[in-house]
Amino acid sequence: MHVLILGGTAEARDLAGLLAADPAPGWRVTSSLAGRVSTPRLPPGEVRVGGFGGAEGLAAWLTGHRVDALVDATHPFAAAMSRHAAEAAARTGVPLLVLRRPGWTPAPGDDWHDAGSLTEAAGLLPSLGRRVFLTTGRMGLAAFAALDELWFLVRSVEPPGEPAPSRTEVLLDRGPFTLAGERELLRRHRIDVVVTKDSGGAATAPKLLAAREARLPVLVVRRPPPPEGVRTVTTPEQARCWLTHPTP
Predict the structure, then answer these.
(1) For 47-75, what is the mean pLDDT?
(2) What is the pTM of this model?
(3) What residues form DSSP beta bridges with 135?
């Protein structure tokens, strides 16, 4: 069975590892990475890098490479890729599963503020603080570029591009992060508000606990919903079980 995993996440790598360690069903696993990170963490099995050319291109790839099952394990905010996967699966009849880690939920002591988009978050931000720890990734800085009165600490894996806020310090780093490290970061940079996407997972969650301990507001951008009508699971183990009898 040829399985195409749309990856780039820890869950995608873990699923590829599960399948690679269980050769009995005769898995052939191809992981597809978007190519936005120059030194990605590679999963076991075959790997392709780069886009497909939209839903039509992905459908052609599924057919041309005789893919039997498609797993969308992309980042929770990769809405366009998830939409293309659903459209390509519908065109070709290839069974599709969405693998998404659960989102974060606030706990007692949290001061969370909800935003539906990066643009909405930028509009709310000046009322919450002046020294911002921005952890929404390098691709969305344009939404905050006009906020010249605020200071930003931007953490990302790769250097961000333009446009960006005029008062910005860039921190290049990759998770997982520790609670002690996040506490020190907030203290050293005198952060008074944290901005994050609801990516979920444990790798970047310590910043939320550090913000809770420091009683800082956290502006959380809601994740987009998965495509309608597509089965969704939350763990690689559940995805592995589905792949034994994939259904559209």
Answers:
(1) 95
(2) 0.87
(3) 196
